[in-house]
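Protocol step 4 of 5: obtain the predicted structure for the target chain.
Materials: sequence only (see below). No template structures provided, no constraints applied. The aim of this step is simply to have a reference model before the mutagenesis design in step 5. Sequence pasted as it appears in the construct record:
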Amino acid sequence: MKTRFYAGAAALALTAGMAQADGHLFVAPGEGAFNWGSFEEFAASNDLSGQTLSIFGPWRGDDQALAESIFAYFSEATGADVTYASSETYEQQIVIDTEAGSPPNIAILPQPGLIGNLVSKGFVAPLGDETESWLADNYAAGSSWVGLGTFAGADGNDALYAFPYKIDVKSLVWYSPENFEDAGYEVPTTMEDLKALTDQIVADGGTPWCIGLGSGGATGWPATDWVEEMMLRTQPAEVYDAWVANEIPFTDERVVAAIDEFGAFARNDAYVSGGAGAVASTDFRDSPDGIFSSPPQCYMHRQASFIPTFFPEGTELGLDADFFYFPSYESKGLGNPVLGAGTLAFITQDSDASRAFIDFLKTPIAHELWMSQSGFLTPLKSANTDLYGNDALKKQGQILLDATTFRFDGSDLMPAGVGAGSFWTGMVDYAGGKSAADVAAEIQSSWDGLK
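Step 4 output (structure tokens):
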């Protein structure tokens, strides 16, 4: 899954045993600018002494330590004994555990499609109307998050089954502030401005974009993000939803047009470092390097929040590199859509502790404590954004808060044979010169063949 790749987690063996929160709290309750009132109110309403809460999730290594640092506060507030486990093959493991009748109380996954499959088999408990209303009212673009966590149950009826928690933003354009300042360029705030800037850079003798699709066996996936971004910026979110659900085909003129919107950037020799012919063969990890060369080989690079991992050693965010929101068309009136990913928590073994944990995720403190560390973004409107661990996270968090629509990475919602197969290879073919209509027809044919 592409979402797993973004997480950048190394392949680790099954976490030995069940890692248990030991009660150590990295910030003492009452200290700092955290919303301790929400912690105290939650604690007063939830006495779970003697109960156990088992959590299974995708986080290992440093991410596991961060997650467990938050679970410790749930244990402190409730008296519950919290255990956490993960696996290198966590997607397969959760299926095995649920089908065997030995699931954890709470599972947390970054794959909505997999969650939907578990829901359809009756392995997940609905979260209820109150939680649905809470998400709609308390998360920015609340209806988007309700939609993300809503699935058809074993009875065929739609209900909220999963709670989005810990989000990743992909709608970012990276650049060098020094390069922009030297050239007299301003950060664009609309797609119209972005296209005008692209042309201005060419007129000034520069190259506006660095784009690379290379990724070993996953070559092509960066282009799927581009197409998903363009779908959200040229069509209402409902059209995007219908597309990723195969309710409208890849061959629909709106999808073909979104592919060509990507091509307007990637297939123009003047727009791309190395020319259009280099796009498919350039490794995505190397592609932003041109921003940092002198003189710059490119000025902009569209990529998700993880890409600084591959910037040259010593690059300082905010000084050597910065980002702005990949803007929407002012003329189309579609607001500020944000493409991203993230994890969703859901109940696979119902209990008082399970329900309390979902309620814990509604508290500002459950967000602020992770925000203050690293790798965590939230659309919770009541969280104190000043607590983000650095300025980059704070800016990305603000992009989430300003979003009018959030949509999950579309290829991760499609069947693997398409979203992690023909869509990838089709984008490589498109970058190589094949028409959008022909590529779309081939992708759709592969999807039809899965039926």
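Step 4 remarks: Residues 3-23 have pLDDT under 50 and may be disordered. Residues 61-78 form the longest helix (18 residues).
Proceed to step 5.
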